[in-house]
Hints:
Oligomer: single chain
Amino acid sequence: MEKLPLLHYQTKRFGDNVFQNCIILSVFHLLGDSTYFFEALTKMGVCNEDIYIIGIPYSNRKESVEQLREETRCVYS
């Protein structure tokens, strides 16, 4: 997560359970660094099964979509 220092800072700032018992619905451009954002959410307490991602079709990177799906997140693209 060093590639996105602000995201790393916020993850440390808010702690491990700030999003515990939350469900995340996101509409996202699934680019190369978007996986770091969802990784940060899990570090802050969201279960992978509670993250629903809708990718914008014209801007999705196939590698990012595949990686997010492998991590048991619900990805629609």
